[in-house]
Design goal:
Growth Hormone, Chain: A; mainly alpha; 81% helix; single chain; 466 residues; globular
């Protein structure tokens, strides 16, 4: 298990360098437009979404460990292609290879985590893996900027450093990762069918795939637009907006804690944190468009992401236990839904913000998150009741759980938003009082002795001059 977490850490450490450097590389060396850079950034995900169901089946066929090794090897090839690219087409080819690598790697890693995590710690396994990736990704992006600054934008050197780092997870997997079910194989005829068909119905797979798409889509609606929202809507400076990103690695530390809760208390409860966090953050963004509000909203979003991965991974592990020979294929199908949500979320958010401003976009995000929470209750309960008849009491529990969880989520969200707004308002009023200058007091008149002449003294007293 430790070897798989180490693979995630070093893989993200390697490719975080590329994530930061590639857009600048494409602009400065090849002169790509912003639209072309955007297409380049999304190209690997497009390829991955299309290939994941089939590459997941391939991982089952050739073995999860071998599939993971091939995927890591392909990512090492990507760094070399980028380092020595001479024309724009070559960097698009590199992104296509990267997408192919993702389509094979993600199902293999998900299936390996499900196997090695065990029934009592599977959520914690996914949590530690995600936490390691988050820390490595943030650190490597910082390292990439430092390297570019120290080497006068020597992109070839940065990509070669990424290549060297990409070899570390390859050796880690080769030496330390073990498959626990090497005796299980899938026939060539079964591999040709792109949909798992034994033990898990197509309808159940479709429901989990669409649920992953909804959760990821609503979560990532703010992902690409966050800097624009912070500067243009909330009135933050660019420096303040950039510093808020430092919240993400701190909040990711909550991931193992959520993993423990998912393993020992309730997976459904932890999974619901993601949708509630989407609602809560959107309400705070709407009610308190200021530095304090944006910090609270961003922290809430990141907390929801930290809760989502362990609970979601544990549910998929439970689902894949119904057909262990096709774990990779199942993870390939469902993770392609998550990727589709990550890709569609920013696109939909941008269209809504253009049409009706950020208020419309955030309002729609609240609605999507509420619908997702309802769908989460229904889908997860269907997994728990698999293979047995639902009792009347269980039916009553589900019918009550749906509206209660949604209403409570909305009440908590608006209540927190109001509280943050009150604190911000009180702080602003206190600051205004401190900065308002006090009114100057009129100068005191000097005391004058009355004249010795009684007539003059009487006049002075009447005028208040003595």
């Amino acid at each position: 298990m430790l070897a798989i977490v180490a693979e995630g850490f070093f893989s993200r450490l390697s490719f975080g360098l590329i994530t930061f450097a590639l857009p600048l590389y494409a602009r400065e060396k090849f002169g790509l437009s912003l639209a072309e850079v955007g297409l380049l950034a999304a190209f690997n995900q497009i390829v991955a979404i299309l290939l994941k169901p089939f590459m997941g089946a391939l991982a089952d066929r050739i073995g999860l460990k071998r599939g993971l090794n091939i995927a890591i090897g392909l990512r090492s090839v990507v760094t070399l292609v980028l380092a020595f690219a001479a024309v724009p087409a070559q960097i698009f080819v590199a992104r296509g290879i990267h997408g192919t690598s993702i389509s094979l790697r993600d199902p293999a890693v998900g299936a390996l985590l499900a196997e090695h995590g065990g029934k009592k710690q599977v959520a914690q396994s996914f949590a530690w893996y995600q936490t390691a990736k988050t820390f490595a990704g943030n650190g490597s992006k910082t390292l990439s900027g430092i390297l570019l600054g120290l080497t006068a934008s020597n992109y070839t050197l940065v990509f070669l450093v990424a290549f060297a780092l990409s070899l570390v997870p390859l050796f880690v997997v080769m030496l330390f990762v073990r498959e626990t079910r090497a005796e299980q194989t899938v026939s060539a005829a079964e591999e040709a069918a792109p949909t798992p068909h034994q033990g898990i119905s197509k309808q159940r797979i479709a429901s989990f795939t669409s649920l992953g798409c909804l959760i990821s889509g609503s979560a990532y609606m703010m992902n690409g637009l966050f800097p624009v929202f912070a500067v243009e809507y909330a009135g933050l400076t660019k420096t303040e907006a950039a510093l808020i990103y430092g919240i993400s690695p701190v909040m990711s530390l909550a991931g193992p804690g959520f993993g423990w809760l998912a393993d020992n208390v309730s997976r459904k409860l932890v999974l619901s944190v993601r949708s509630v966090a989407n609602i809560l953050s959107s309400v705070v963004y709407l009610l308190v468009p200021s530095l304090g509000g944006v910090i609270v909203g961003r922290a809430t979003d990141d907390l929801g992401k930290a809760a989502f991965k362990p609970a979601w991974g544990a549910l998929l592990a439970q689902l894949s236990n119904l057909d262990k020979k096709r774990r990779g294929q199942l993870f390939g199908f469902i993770s392609s839904g998550e990727d589709a949500g990550e890709a569609l979320g920013p696109i939909v958010a941008g269209a809504l913000a253009t049409l009706g401003g950020f208020q419309l976009m955030l309002a729609v995000r609240i609605v999507i998150a509420a619908v997702t929470e309802v769908y989460t209750v229904l889908v997860t309960h269907s997994l728990e009741s698999h293979g047995r008849t639902r009792t009347g009491r269980e039916t009553y529990r589900v019918s009550i759980a749906v509206p209660v969880r949604v209403v409570l989520g909305l009440l908590v969200s608006f209540g927190a938003g109001w509280a943050v707004g009150q604190v911000q308002s009180d702080h602003s009023q206190a600051s205004a009082k401190e900065t308002t200058p006090a009114e100057p007091k009129p100068p005191e008149k000097a005391t004058v002795r009355c004249s010795s002449d009684p007539t003059v003294a009487a006049i002075q007293k009447q005028l208040g001059e003595c």
